[in-house]
Prior knowledge:
By secondary structure, this protein is mainly alpha-helical. The protein folds into two domains: 3-80, DNA polymerase, domain 1 (Orthogonal Bundle), CATH 1.10.150.130; 96-271, hpI Integrase, Chain A (Orthogonal Bundle), CATH 1.10.443.10. It contains twelve helices and three strands, in the order ααααααβββαααααα. The chain has helices at residues 3-22, 33-45, 50-69, 96-102, 111-126, 130-134, 164-182, 201-214, 223-236, 241-248, 253-256, 258-274; strands at 141-142, 147-151, 157-161. Strands 1-2-3 form a three-stranded antiparallel sheet, with no helix packed on it. Helix 5 packs antiparallel against helix 7. The longest helix has 20 residues, at 3-22.
Amino acid sequence: MAENTIEAYAADISLFLNFLTSCQKDYLNQVDLPTIQNFLEVQRLQKISKRSNARRISALKSFFNFLVRENLAEHNPFLAIDLPRSGKTLPKALSQGEVLSLLAPPNIATPIGKRDNAMLFVLYSTGLRVSELVGLPLAACNLSAGFVRVLGKGNKERLIPFGDQAREKIDDYLKTARPLILKNKRSNYLFVTRRGTCMTRLRFWQIIRKTALAVGITKEISPHMIRHSFATHLLSHGADLRSVQMMLGHADIATTQIYTHIDQDRLKSIHKKFHPRG
């Protein structure tokens, strides 16, 4: 599994074990249906989403399967728990005008400013996951061919093209900004910090938020929203679903199909606005 998934499952299991401690249950065989129901009720009162609860139940069900297999527990009490139906939440995307504002060059073209602007262009041009973007190796970017080579979830490799504007931003960053940021340090990462390391996901999230506020975008914004915008804008301009699936790195095309619902909503709003008998 992806590192982020492993971290999430570990956090889910730790959360449940801490809950058991608070209930003064010292042995895993003491976990019964009422205990699990109390745990889920606590999550509900904390307004944890159905999707997060579904992941927690799945993680704990797998955890207890492991315990039974290793003779560390007598049974799996989570087998009696059905996963909550999370429904299909449409991803939020920025308008094309908002993206253009976000990609506007910084007023002061500092090396860090050029790096951040280049990262935003690459993110929107390729639809990378934020973990893929911040950890992108220098050797993975082919400027002459205009694509990046990405190792995504499940160690699956994919090639994603990027446009001329993104190419120009990367080229300028590599020539005029990256050497000044590194100051004779060596790094295998494309986008670097002053320490020569790659940026954290949280730090890039903060950069996007700060940039958005500077250009007048007050809505909550995240790197994943720009990934959503990449897919939505491609489909709205006629891209086929299969190509978008390959660029996003979705294993199942059903995951990509959710973006067609966004486009349908856009068509409905246009129909309602302009149809004389709407």
